[in-house]
Each structure stands twice: as C-alpha cells, then as structure tokens.
Amino acid sequence: MSASPSVPRNVAAPSVDVAMITYNHEAYLAEAIEGVLQQQTTFPVRMVIGEDCSTDRTREILLQYQQRYPDRFLLLLPEKNIGVMPNLKQVLEACTAPYIALLEGDDYWTNPHKLQRQVDFLQAHPEHSMTLHDAEIFWQDGATPPVSFSSTKTQLQQGERDFTHADVVKNGWFMPTASLVFRREPVAKLPEWFTTVFSGDYSLHLLISRAGKVHYFPEVMSRYRMHSAGLSHNQTMNRPDQIIKKVQENEAFRQHFDAEHRAHFTRSISDLQVQHGTALRRQGQYGGMTKSWLAAIATDPVRVARNFVGKLIRGQLF
Q: Which of 25, 112, 212, 285 has the highest local Cβ count within 10 Å?
C-alpha cells in the first residue's frame, strides 16, 4: 500500500523541498532536521520525508517534529517496508517546490546560509540544473580524524567550477548527497528503472545533469557521517548479487542515456561482469564464473582482450 502524505491541506507551496529518506536513524535524525530548521532563507522550506517502517524510534521522532512544526513537514509513512529506491522515488515525486535539496537522515548541514546560496545561484543561472558543495567526512566513533570530501575525490580539487553531463558520466559518483540542490523538473517523473538501480545518487546525478550544467562550491557546508550501519552496507558492495545490480544499472544507463555515452557504459558492464566472475571464483562457483566471463567477452571483446594481455604481461593472472 502506498504511503499517505501527512500534512495540513492549507499549507502554501514551498520554494524548496528537502527530500529525505530515513530508516533506523533514531540516533542521528534530530541533528539532520535541526540543520534544516536553522536555515536562514528568504523563501519557505519544507521537509518531505519517507520513513520506511524503522524498528527504532525514527517515526516517533518525525511525528513529534511535525506536531511542533506542522507547516514544515510532509511525512510519507508506508504501512510496510518498501525498500530504499522505491522510497526515494516516492519522496522525490511528492516534492512540489521548484527546487529540491537532498539530505539523508544520518547526515546534516552545518552552514545556515547553504540553501539560500545555492538557490540564489540557480535562479541567476538558468543554464544550470544543479549545485553542490564540499562536505566533511567524519567517523561516528571518533577513531579516525575528519577529512574533507574533496580530499577523496580528485574531481573536486580544482576549486569552484562547472561540470557537464559528460563529466558526470565519465567520473561516476563524486558528489556528496547532502550537498545537492537542483531543479525539480528533471526528477518530477522518474523512470521505472530508477527503482532497480544500485546507486540512486549516481542515477540522479545523470538524470539531472542531462538537463543542465552542475556548479560546485568548494566550501564545506555539510557533514557526511560514517558509522557501523553505513560501513556494513559498504562491505556488501562486492558481493556477487550487488555486482549484478550494478550490471543491470549500467544496462539501464546504456539504454536510456545519450548514444554518445553508450561506449562508456558498455565498458563498465564488461568490467563488472569480469568482477562478478572473479567474486564467484572466490566462492568456488566455477560454472557461474565461466558464464560471467563469457558474458564480459561478448559485451566488449576488445576491452577484455586488452585487460587479459595487460595482466599476463604484469604477471597478475597466475
């Protein structure tokens, strides 16, 4: 059953919707919400939040905030867990403001002027579809010193600049989620394949950047939290089933994005099929390994041959 919006009918249409999906974020959610409530803007801001049947107090916290600020929250509260991507699609399509900001329930904003600055830029530059900024990565347990997001992504180390759709295709995921503010039009109706992708973030980057340039501000205006739940998710990324999801994701990209970028996605599919076969080999599944490697050869035989010869020369095959 689909979620029902929980918001008074007489609320005026906001200028910015903050799109958030949350699940078991009880320990972090208030910090994320307070960072939004502290934004100093000349326009109204609303939070559109999909709470996916958490097993902790996440939903209770949201309902308490909505009771305190009834004009600031649109809550989507499904009766059963629907999963990350369907939840994200539902939240984005529930947004009605001309601009959307992304924020996950375990990250938070640190600059009270963040939204104003990004929206001002988009209003002054109609050729741009999205803006982003630097963020600070920090570890919840404090065992590792914080670092800037840009220090981990070479694409963000050239200072303030613009990116094109081709840059996004070529460079993959390099934009911190909680930094993004973009126009609503490119995501007003998301394609059905969006719910099946591995990376909702990167899929959004591709869809939005196709509608215009992307502007980067080098200032840190949000914090990106690393914690045990997030780390355990990251550790599943190289499982065979997750690699297959990445293959399927790139097949959707190859089919639905511009022809000039198909070769890039074809190379990605071939590389992932090789990676899938290698993962199966580690598990002793040699039949599946052979099938995946043959699929990689069929997808991009020249690339596979070059990689094979390169590894043979470097002594990495045996």
A: 25
Helix, strand, coil percent content, the chain, rounded in steps of 5: 50, 20, 35
Using CB atoms within 10 Å of the CB of residue 295, give its burial: 0 to 12 exposed, 13 to 18 middle, 19+ buried.
Answer: middle
Mean pLDDT of 158-177: 95
Give the ranges where the chain is alpha helix by DSSP (H): 29-37, 58-68, 84-94, 114-124, 165-171, 200-209, 228-234, 240-256, 262-282, 286-299, 301-313
pTM, full prediction:
0.89
What SS3 state is found at 163? strand
**Tokens for 226?**
């690393």
Is-contact 158 167, C-beta < 8 A? no
d(CA 104, CA 21): 6
CA 103 to CA 33: how far, in whole Å? Answer: 9
Residue pLDDT, tens place only, 283-295: 999 999 999 999 9
Q: pLDDT by residue (tens digit) across 100-116?
A: 999 999 999 999 999 99
Q: Flag whether pLDDT at 273 surpasses 90.
A: yes
